[in-house]
Amino acid sequence: MAATSASALSIGSTISHGSIANQVSQSKAVGVNFNSRTHLKSFAGLKASASVSCESVSSFLGKESTAVLRHSFARKAHNLSQTSSNVLQVKASFKVAILGAAGGIGQPLALLVKMSPLVSDLHLYDIANVKGVAADLSHCNTPSQVRDFTGSEELANCLKGVDVVVIPAGVPRKPGMTRDDLFNINAGIVKTLIEAVADNCPDAFIHIISNPVNSTVPIAAEVLKQKGVYNPKKLFGVTTLDVVRANTFVAQKKNLKLIDVDVPVIGGHAGITILPLLSKTKPSATFTDQEVNDLTNRIQNGGTEVVEAKAGAGSATLSMAYAAARFLESSLRALDGDSDVYECAFVQSEVTELPFFASRVKLGKKGVEAVISSDLEGLTEYEAKGLEVLKVELKGSIEKGVAFAQKQAVTA
After folding, report:
1. Is residue 39 annotated as part of the catalytic site, yes or no?
2. Residue of 39, 123, 207, 269 marked active site
């Protein structure tokens, strides 16, 4: 699981907010070394610091996760201070593959993943144009080693030994298109890629981004079942963008500090199947009926908002890449042993009568450790009605994915 050699990033004893690492050294040990007389107080997202407050640091993480992560590193630093060497190592030890890395989501996602201190090897795959992306990223002085893989003949090598596979491959939405319009093309792409995952890294976490997620995740599940390697705890539909949008829009509407805001989003990942639970917003906020309706509609149609604003030039690529990187970072933290990692995701679930459902889950080394069913308790009348409506559409999307996979012969 861990790479045996890569660069180590050493950060000296005087680190301020927004500072750049003082020195970069080459070492056989893969890691990020924080050499400081001051205990490490925060490690959030893409920035590491010895003394700044986490609340002032831009991060993939929410407030609660950031606080837990800060406490964890502060404790490790304290323990190390009792020894002769006050050096804290954050091991870059995980291999990540991005399938569709030359696309509109894949490129910015690859950049964000390259910046993660937990990634030792970054494998980039696409059917074309990925070599230049890899060359470009390889010039960034962060620990992970970048390799490129082009075409189906190189897909197996891309996946061997990988810990997490992220799949943004497929065609984007264009004006007037629904996620369902993408089905016929993207369904086949996901099926082919998941077959390769099953053959080469069946124990990896699988993050599905390719739309329509409500159907592509069931397709992936069926393919993995047919291959005899299905582990429902390790298959995720990435719905983090819905949470990111909900947090952003609510913070703007209520003039809240963004890092404080956490809105659970349940259901699926398309239109009315996206249901933000505004009544469970943290910190607690009061919304008028009109605000609830307006915010819910905007969160549900955030993708369309971007598609129309780009006027045919693309869909939500940058925000999706950010959201995917946040979910990946959470997965890597869980794999690394963090015991307090929660994210919303579209997974096999029993919180409703549907076989798949998006809700908050607790992540651990083996994938989903728990599905948080309590979020579905005590819903408002508006949310309860929204839940019943979304179930009908989500059920159809899931069944469509299952039917597609069952009709297609899996490549041996």
Report:
1. no
2. 269
Beta bridge partners of 235: 206
Strands (E), 12-67: 23-27, 32-35, 42-44, 47-49
Instruction: For residue 214, give the nearest of 243, 245, 182, 189 by alpha carbon.
Output: 182
Q: How far apart are CA 262 and CA 276, in angstroms?
A: 10
Q: Is 167 exposed, middle or buried (0-12, 13-18, 19+ CB in 10 A)?
A: buried
Which amino acid makes up residue 274?
I
Find out whether 225 and 183 touch, Cβ atoms under 8 Å: no
Q: What is the pLDDT of residue 205?
A: 98
Phi, psi of 336 (to 5 degrees): -80, -5
Amino acid at position 55, single letter: E
- Given a contact cutoff of 8 angstroms between Cβ atoms, the answer to whether 199 and 231 are in contact is no
Closest residue by Cα to residue 166 from 227, 110, 222: 110
For residues 331 and 369, give the distance between their C-alpha atoms in angstroms, rounded to a whole number. Answer: 12
* Of 45, 105, 58, 169, the residue nearest 306 (C-alpha): 105
pLDDT tens by residue, 194-244: 999 999 999 999 999 999 999 999 999 999 999 999 999 999 999 999 999
* Paired residues of 361 in beta bridges: 343, 371
For tokens 């699926």, the residue is 268
Q: For residue 368, what is the DSSP state?
A: E
User: Tokens 């042993």 — which residue?
Assistant: 337
Structural domains of the chain, with CATH: 6-90 (no CATH), 93-412 (3.90.110.10)
Range name among 80-84, 186-190, 220-224, 310-314 with the lowest pLDDT average: 80-84
- CA distance to 19, 226, 232, 264, 268, per residue, from 220 (Å): 42, 10, 10, 25, 16
How many C-beta atoms surround the C-beta of residue 172 within 10 A?
A: 20
Closest CA to 304 of 270, 332, 266, 265: 270
Determine the residue type at 214. Answer: N
Exposed/middle/buried for residue 169 (C-beta within 10 Å: 0-12, 13-18, 19+): buried
DSSP string, 76-108: HHHHHHTSS--EEEE---EEEEEETTTSTTHHH
pTM for the model: 0.81
